[in-house]
Amino acid sequence: MTAIDTAALKPPEALDVARVRADFPILDLEVSGKPLVFLDNAASSQMPRPVIDRIVQYQTAEHANIHRAVHYLSEKATAEYEAARRKIQRFINAGEEREVIYTSGTTDGINLVAHGYGRKFIGEGDEIILTTLEHHSNIVPWQMLAQEKGAKIRVVPINDRGEVDLDEYRRLFSAHTKLVGVTHVSNALGTINPVKGMIAFAHGHGVPVLVDGAQAVPHLGVDVQDLDCDFYAFSGHKLCGPTGIGILYGKAAMLEKMQPFKGGGDMILSVTFEKTTYNTIPHKFEAGTPPIMPAIALGAAVDYLSGVGMERIAAHETDLLDYATQSVNRLPGVRIIGTAERKAAVLSFAVEGVHPHDVGTLLNEEGVAIRTGHHCAQPVMQRFKVPATCRASFAFYNKMEEVDALVAAISKVQKVFG
Ligand SMILES: Cc1ncc(COP(=O)(O)O)c(C=O)c1O
After folding, report:
1. What is the pLDDT of residue 240?
2. Atom 9 (ligand 1): residue with closest C-alpha?
């Protein structure tokens, strides 16, 4: 009889937050004479020591341009760059490494699809379905394409909790629908969209789906094969990696039939003045010298996150969000905007009678870093009839005491303005 592995049946051990925090040197900073409470992780997360060390290692012992020379450093850098691609492939469970394209970020990945896929396959009278929850980077590229081609944008509304109206989503499909663009997690409200079901429905109509995963990959543990999305874009700097690097996952069959976005070195097999033959995927979409160090650092970042454990990360962040929601809800005069049943890591709120920018400025005096503004999601602000919100966004290295610091700082703002 085969022995049952009982260890595998146990839920993962809770995250050791103190241990994790020791990996992040920046968290020891003081701001305004107070310990930094960094709650702006949805904009950009912080970098742990193993990723910083990996950058130093690369710059001091591995750097050269890739894919272009036979000398030691070039071969080393090429091998590490491609090894990082395989790490990222495993992290999001892409079927093949050639389905993982390095970009400069989510915005770049979405623009790549708008140009590479949209300009080839979307024409006059065609329709693109987006949701009200989209970040500007999943709106503007499609608007530019629609203007150029004479196509239309159709928008799925959201309810008062900030959840997409799925009945309306289904109703928007027609023979003209050519693409769906949907955010996995809303950066402004934290809503987790039911993207798997939305993708299945779109596929039932033969429509491909691009998922903006900028706010999902750092928090949820994403499996692109399970989602069955056609494209999935995300950014390294929200994932404990550096700026200037992102990933576009695309199904090989989709990437194969797309046109390149940018032309130049590395994306070709041969060039004459009469004709260029493009390289195979993923290189067809990686023109010019890529962000080599950031790609390798992103590989180290996903190694780090896998080591901490995405399940543990998600569980701790859920606890943080629940505690923050309960605590902020107890403050009279503070309204949480975005109360979806399924949310991740984001708490948007308004303090009665105080402009969000004043809230942000006063919180900074307490060492608490939040973001205030429209969060590059103006349609969400318009839906809730506010010019801006205050947004606290959590990462796995945040501790419960930091939620207390946030709440105390908001109370102080209310006293100042009271
Ligand atoms: C949901 C979402 N999409 C796209 C982006 C754009 O990411 P980047 O600026 O890294 O391209 C962001 C960044 O805040 C985001 O939150």
Report:
1. 98
2. 107
